[in-house]
Amino acid sequence: LLLMNSTEQFNLIVGHINHNLRPESDNDKSFVEDLSGDLNIPYYSKSLDPNSRNKSTSVEEWGRTNRYSFLKKIAKQTNSKWIMTAHHGNDQAETVLMNLARQSGVSGLRGIAKQDGNLLRPFLAFTQKEINDFSKRTGCLYKEDSTNSDITIPRNFIRHRVVKPWEDEVTGLISGLQGSVRHFNEWKTALDFLIIKSLFPNVKKSDKRFDIPMDMMITLPKMAKIRLVHLLMDDSGSELWSKHQLNMLNQFINKDNTGNVHELHNGWRLLHNRDVLIGEKISADIQKNAVELYPNVPLNYNEYRYELILNGRYDPSENTNTETINWSILKNRKLEIRTWKKGDSFQPLGMDGHQKISDFLIN
Question: Collapsing DSSP states into helix, strand and coil, what is residue 61?
């Protein structure tokens, strides 16, 4: 920042996000604001409310999402060409090790991207020690996040108990891991190239739908199946899939039962339809609020039509779109239609406990 500012060849802007997770976060904000003022650099800041975080979202994910959203907003407002963050080589090493533990697949081994669109991370080539040594030589002041020493936080444990001792023993550890990250990226690029050139021609594809022949799908190795689906959904890989999400996708692909549906976390829906695996982009304006269903009153909800018909007799149907129920159990209760929510469960017949609907549809 100091060097770029001194050349007077760049129009720089500083963006700072106060997560309000630590008592000293206000002091950090003042430090960045004062430094920007001393360097005569325009300064923008945003203060977050931790209470606004959805409890199903981790603190790390909540903070990351809000940070990049704010930085992209400021870049657009100021017509800035690039967004630069200070991630360094040690951050890269920690990220790769964490993704290995999470079993997040080949995409996780790529680590932090040096460039992602207009987002640049110019410090990835340098270790934390090299940056700290530079700061000391030039007399640059910097602030250390006090929570970085808290090893109950998984990343900090890896930083202090794994990477630091390892780096002390192995010269060039960080640069070696950086080289491995480059190799992982090259392998992933090669895999994507072969899938696009060899498999895409056999797939019927449009912007919001794709049809994969199952006779081709069943011949592919596990990761080729998963990556083919990723690429057809235009998944750049910037959002890593968890071990659970990858396993659920793989189980669904291999469970070839016509009519089975699997809704993914990224806004896509998969459907087994005879000899084809269909992928559909779910409409962004899909209705999510619950709507009450009344007897003999047809209801159109999103892309489907529902109708509760009372016929006074037990008449089971083999039609998979028809369900026969005992109305005497439900007649004094409210029956509603709504979209699936994370954690929804039910009690299958013959079972004492409950099972998640998402797991049932896969199994």
Answer: helix
Question: Counting Cβ atoms within 10 Å, is residue 144 exposed (0-12), middle (13-18) or buried (19+)?
Answer: exposed
Please state the pTM of the whole predicted model.
0.69
* Record: fold of 182-281: 3.30.465
Q: Return the pLDDT at 57.
A: 80
SS (H, E, C) 156-203: HHHHHHHHHHHHHHCCCHHHHHHHHHHHHHHHHHHHHHHHHHHCHHHC
Give tens-digit pLDDT for 57-88. Answer: 888 889 999 999 999 999 999 999 999 999 99
Beta bridge partners of 306: 299
Low-confidence residues in the chain, pLDDT < 70: 235-239, 284-286, 361-363
262 DSSP β-pair partners: 270
pLDDT tens per residue across span 105-153: 777 888 898 998 899 999 999 999 999 999 889 888 888 888 888 899 8
Report CA 161 to chain centroid distance, whole Å.
27
Write out the two tokens for 326.
């005992």
Map out the domains of the chain as residue ranges. Answer: 2-181, 182-281
2-181 is classed CATH 3.40.50.620: yes
Phi/psi at 290 (nearest 5 deg)?
A: -70, 140
Q: How far apart are CA 232 and CA 240, in angstroms?
A: 16
- What is the rounded distance in angstroms from the CA atom of residue 114 to the CA atom of residue 301? 44
Characterise 201 by phi-psi region: left (phi > 0), alpha (psi -120 to 50), beta (else). alpha
